[in-house]
Amino acid sequence: MKKALILLLIAVLSLLSCGKEVKKVTDESKTAQEAIALAEEIKKAYLKEDLAVIEKNTTKEGYREFLGAIKKFDKAELTFSSKWVEIEKTSVSMKIAWSGTWIVGERAAEERGTALFIFEGSPLKLSRILRANPFRQPE
């Protein structure tokens, strides 16, 4: 009886020690997730032509640059695919592959490219877009 109890106790303890270790989410991972979510929010606001949401999520300089870049369209579809995120002390850089279709009147334009979004501050705000800016379309 005593041996059976000891064997049962060993079996229970070994089962409990086999549990999976839960890894904590790092600050860098949280920052990267915040940048990806912010890019998606700005994209949705752009497609709805909601400048108030765009202004809220960009720096002053970023908003001025954004307004100078956008062009009129009747309808648009735009997809983003995040390729990498680099986190520095004062900024976050995110490389995004994008593709989209813009309709202006009877004309449809399909474009794709790669952009580099630069975010700053806490909470993050879009400050610049380098390379092929998806919000400059249709060209």
Question: Can you describe this structure?
Answer:
This protein is of the alpha+beta class and 139 residues long. 39% of the residues lie in helices and 35% in strands. The chain has helices spanning 2-17, 27-48, 51-56, 60-69; strands spanning 75-87, 91-104, 107-120, 125-131. It has a four-stranded antiparallel beta sheet, covered by helices on one side. A hairpin with a 4-residue loop joins strand 3 (107-120) and strand 4 (125-131).
Radius of gyration: 24 Å
Oligomeric state as shown:
single chain
Shape label: elongated
Q: Which structural category fits the helices and strands?
A: alpha+beta
Provide a compact summary of the structure:
Helix content is 39%, strand content 35%. The protein has helices spanning 2-17, 27-48, 51-56, 60-69; strands at 75-87, 91-104, 107-120, 125-131.
